[in-house]
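Action item from last week, closing it out:
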Amino acid sequence: MTTVLVTGGAGYIGSHCCKAFAEAGWSVVTYDNLSRGWRDAVKWGPLVEGDIADAETVAAALRQYRPDVVAHFAAYAYVGESVSHPELYYRNNTFGTLVLIEEMLKAGINRLIFSSTCASYGIPMRTPIDEEHPQWPINPYGWSKFMIERIIEDFSLARGLNAVMLRYFNAAGCDPDGEIGERHEPETHVVPLAIEAAIKPGRVFTINGTDFDTRDGTAVRDYVHVTDLAHAHVLGGEKLLRDQGVHVYNLGTGNGTTVKELVDAVGRVSGQGLPVAYGPRRAGDPPALVAAAGKAKRELGWGPRHSDINEIIDTALAWYRGRM
């Protein structure tokens, strides 16, 4: 059986990917320090508790399980936090990945799926954004991921590392079966915050920025269902078993939704209006991020199947109502 070691597999996207790998017949091992993940989200194989910057623990896990592929999600991912505390992001995301790659190669393991981000593009020069678009991040989170991409390219040339780098646009939604969902502390992601405002008394949803150069003044994002993202990782793993080199793919729908449109959709799907307040732009927020995802379709056979905004909200709403 093909084995995948999933770093950050107790987190939001990582846990959904663990499920997708398991359903595809892979043996799944989660590696997570549980600082921002959840023990009860580890349902598809053993958990190794450890930090990616702890070379000794990483090496021991690689020796014990001998994974064919490492899928790397372990990272801090709050844009605002990265602006106020950049040291966390360069130490954990960038340095931690360097340790992971070094230990993989020492163990003779050279296949890596990397969870990257559209934040590496910065403020887009054109939309939709394809993989050839220049990368110039505008926040430390984006820079930390951009640096990792560079590290992967350099290790590929120097040491034969093979990688699939997946640049997500806005991950959203929850497992349609309700087994796992989206949990962050603190919660900063727009879909769960909007849902909480709709279903929890006293909550107010804040729209950050109404003066962007967009069709209604609010930020535009390309929301892609987390289950679709998970499927892309399985396809990426299968590609690594066949092909060498470094392969980069955007994962998005090609359709942008403004924050105001998202608010309207949450009200429509939930059947409950939500109170809205207005605030300033968040530091490091581009006005619009929309993917050109044709390369993933051509080379991986991937396409979004659950990423209609109504389905995204419906699955997330079911998850949150199930936990009330």
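Closing note: The chain has ten helices and 14 strands.
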